[in-house]
Amino acid sequence: MTEPIPKTSPKHLRHNRDVLSTKKLAGAGLPEFFPLDHPEAPPVHGGYVLTPFTQRTRTAGLLSSRRMLAGLLLIGVASLGLMGLGATSASAATATPTTKCVADATTGCIQGTIKQSNGDPAVGVKLTIAGGDAPETLTTDAAGKWGVAITVAGPYTVTLDTTTLPSGETLDPSVTNPATVTGGLGRNTGTIFKLSGSGGSSSGSTSAPTTGDTSAATGGSVTWERFLQQAASGIRLGLLLALASVGLSLIYGTTGLSNFAHGEQVTLGGLLAFVLANQLGLNLFLAAFLTVVVCAATGYFQDALIWKPLRKRGLPNTQLMIVTIGLSIALQYAFQFFIGAKTVRIDKANPVTVEIGPITLSVQSLWAMGIAVAVIILVGLFLLRSRIGRATRAVSDNPSLAAASGIDVDAIIRLVWTASAGLAGLAGVMLGLVLNGVNWQTGLQLLLLMFAAVTLGGLGTAFGALAGAMIIGMVVELTNLVLPGDFKYATALLILILVLLVRPQGIFGRRERIG
Amino acid sequence: MNEFLTTLTAIAASAFSPSTAALAIAAIGLNIHFGYTGLLNMGQAGFMLVGAYAFAISIVAGIPLFPAVLIALVAAAVFALVLGVPTLKLRGDYLAIVTISAAEIVRMIGRSSLLTDITGGSNGLTGQSYRGPFTDLSFLGDGQTTLGPFTYDNTGSNGWWVRLVAWSIVGILCLFVFLLMRSPWGRVLRGIREDEDAIRSLGKNVYAYKMQALILGGTIGALGGIIYVLPASVQADSMGRSMTFFVWTALLLGGAATVFGPVLGSIIFFALRLFVQGIAGQFVPDSIMNGQQAEQFSWILIGVVLMLVVIFRPQGVLGNKKELSFNVN
């Protein structure tokens, strides 16, 4: 490798290419392929660059690749292990104390009073309101009243958590739960949850079985059980986040584009699954499969119709980024146009929960985590082992160099768009199942976590996105232990800012990419 | 025909409403960030929210009007400082990601139940609680005044007084930006936008200039936030990501790096929305598109317009293509 190859002599070059076996490269302690612009890499010759593509090789002797594979396996093993321990169903969001809501020109109120069958106010009943703004959890106050201010008119879903009803009280059979109300600005909208006291005697059997559980229920202190529950939730969120953000990172890596419309791909997946599984009544697995296929197709056509022509026009990335913002706005309102602002459920049936050890988990969560782990491992193997996967990483590393070595950069980018959209769609389906519903801004909320995960791991590195997603997922859910639910996303974003202060290139990123 | 006239009147009314002025002010701030300096601030709504909260909370706490405005501006400056320190030395995307995240953090903290006593939680602060000192300053007196088809209270919550003040501020800011960008300081900013390294090689401290631009634009954004909440209420969710995107759309529609672009863009933004809504409301039967869907359709169109403007006319209505290179690094 020390001898420069005279470029004027094709014969000589050919000869060299034949002679340069991968074994020799590995023996010289050179990175096989991945860090072509690694600072320690020798000057690149045509023959050297081409070698990994002209010869299929089993020598995975590169340092970074091995490290990434190890990290990936670690994530997989850790998550599988914790899956054995169990996971939790929807995380218990901390209750918001009810305040008086005053309707004016820009706000409206949804409110009501819950009374027990004997006329006393039902105190401490939890309700979840989903619709225009972020879903909100409320608790009835001492007078049994609850209320929330809204800034977007439209249908809202009010779900009463029947497990928080006073002992002996049940929902009257005539009540629809969840109830859908149409909230308007400048007025108060109410809905009534009538209770009936059917089994007063059952209160004895629901007394706290052991010590410690009562404190966990009130949400005040950190207990081992709560920690385990939240950790399991964290792994679940991290896995789904990883699925969604790998694509974001790959798109960034291959095209340099920060895709602000990636969150809408996740929403699209969830909503498509709702239409297929809930509306059309397809089998859940079939619906999920079809959703992924359709989502992947949207990625393919998006690149074919929008992004490739714009790349050819030579539009700078900043401009393209603002185009993605426009697309994101258009898609969000398109979702509202067709589905509405309400939160919809993919699966009609109530989730079945399983208890393993101290942790409760829904069956769907288990499936989602299992599928996520499998898909992530497949993506990892694809990127590390297959030729196209290597080509993808090559384009991600240095597009011009990849093009110079005969890789069809446009085809790779098309593949990345397709796969990213498909993965995001899959993440959307599973998020919808796990979080018990999906609405037009599910993806929007996730997008910031995805950006945090991708930046934390290192912009443009696929495996960094996985690691970052696991960390962010954990942080978000564990924050719930000490802070109210409102803060759980805020902590993740705070970490993002701190990471940029200390190590702006992220965990797996390289210094020269950030400047 | 009569209904068409109603739509036109509604469009004209929205063209000089306080919200349009507030959006214009925020867009002027963003113009200093993006148009002149090339900073990708994706959290302008965060600056607005910080300003609105600081202003409203100060008034509620009993601080007089002008000190309260000052507090709001200082709060926005501190916010800009916090965001700028980690990101201004990095590539543009990082500022974008951090600003959008920080704006979300502000929104989440604002609507958090922990701070209900101070921020009003998700219900926000009602306009009556902080509007008093502002309306007390009015010299228009009580009663209503009719100008053409428009009738508003002279001083009431959403009347002529707040319109007068809001548009005066817009005018003053336009003049301010015009003078500022002719100054040597403004030329350095534009130089940074065009070629950071060239400016650095002239011995200028690019980092410091960027920071100053971020702070200046942010405080103007806070001013926009104050104007935005004066006729309404402080509601964390009304200044979320969508607001940031609207400010961007307005700026790019009108033309970044121009003095009047942000103002014109804001007016077009609201007019276009109402126009689409009005047309759809009248000519499309309810079975195809009901009132709510017409509104959503107008937003879809806003998104598409943003895409098309950026692709085909990145300089906007007023801009000069040479002026705006869009190459933020």
Summary of the model, kept short:
Chain A is an alpha+beta fold and 515 residues long. Chain A is built from 16 helices and 11 strands. In chain A, a hairpin with a 2-residue loop joins strand 10 and strand 11.
Describe the structure in your own words.
The complex is a heterodimer of chains A (515) and B (329). Chain A is 53% helix and 9% strand. Chain A has 515 residues and is an alpha+beta fold. Chain A folds into 3 domains: 61 residues, no CATH class; 92 residues, Immunoglobulin-like; 289 residues, ABC transporter involved in vitamin B12 uptake, BtuC (Orthogonal Bundle). Chain A starts with 9 loop residues before the first helix and ends in a 13-residue tail after the last helix. A two-stranded antiparallel sheet of chain B has the order 1-2. Chain B is mostly helical and 329 residues long. Chain B is built from 14 helices and 2 strands. In chain B, a hairpin with a 2-residue loop joins strand 1 and strand 2. Chain B has a domain of 222 residues. Chains A and B meet through helix 9, helix 14 and helix 16 of A and helix 4, helix 5, helix 12 and helix 14 of B.
